[in-house]
Every structure is written in C-alpha cells, then in structure tokens.
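Let us work through a complete example step by step.
Step 1: write down the sequence.
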Amino acid sequence: MNTHILTNTGTRKPNAQKPRKHVLGKSAPEASPQSRLSLSRHYLATLTLPDIKKLTDVKGFSSALQPILEKESVQCLGQVNHEFPNESFTVVVALAESHISVHTWPEYRTVQLDVFLCNYIHDNKQKSERIFNAIVEYFEPVESDATYIDRL
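Step 2: predict the structure and record it as tokens.
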C-alpha cells in the first residue's frame, strides 16, 4: 500500500514560543512531555485526479467507503451526503472515534479529504492511516498534497 503522507505540520520551529493550554479561560502551564501521549493522528489532503468521474459519483464513493470502515471496525454514528448543482459532493461521516469528510471540486479535478480517529485508550494512528490511504487509493490521484497532525 502506498503512503500519501508528505509532511507533519505537528512540528514546531526551534525558536517559536510554545502555546499555553487554556482551561475555562485561564492559562494553564504547559503539560510535561510524558503526559502528552499521541494516540491519534489527523490526516488532511488535497488530491488531484486525472478526470472528474469519481468526483461526481457520490453513490460510488459511499459504496466504496462502507467496506473500508467495516474492515477497520469503526463505529459509524451517521453519514450525510450532499450533492451540489455542479454534481460535486460533500460526504461527512460521524464516527464514535471522530470523523471523515470528503469535499469534491470537479471544476478543479480535486478532492479535499479529512480523516481523524481519536481514542483515549488505544493508539489509533495506524488505523487512521489505513483508512486515509484506502480512500486515497479509491480516488486514484495523479497528485496529492497531504499532511497529518498528531493529537491526543
């Protein structure tokens, strides 16, 4: 399976000031490195396709997505599909673990993809990556610009 992860935006410049965590409007001290476990990964991508066929086929995408989610045993809470007048579509899937969203732009031959699975007990990074890569493989892009953010 080819990976489409290109960069990690979760890194910080060496001289950048560290952001402070805020709880109920009050600034809290930075958490210790030991307490900042990363159990989830948020993938974001813009894919460019050779043509618009899959960018205008919401039923085809929804049919391809279901076995991907079943294979990874994620709990789907609901799915909303919206088709636009130019035949582009948005699909948003609410998962117990978080979400997946797909927005197609046939006029630019692109897809905006967002895959995030979180879990406070298990490390979901590899599961997120498998789902992300399976969706990317469905679209068969000729170019991809992808990144991820490690999250708690």
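Step 3: interpret the result. The chain has one domain: 37-151.
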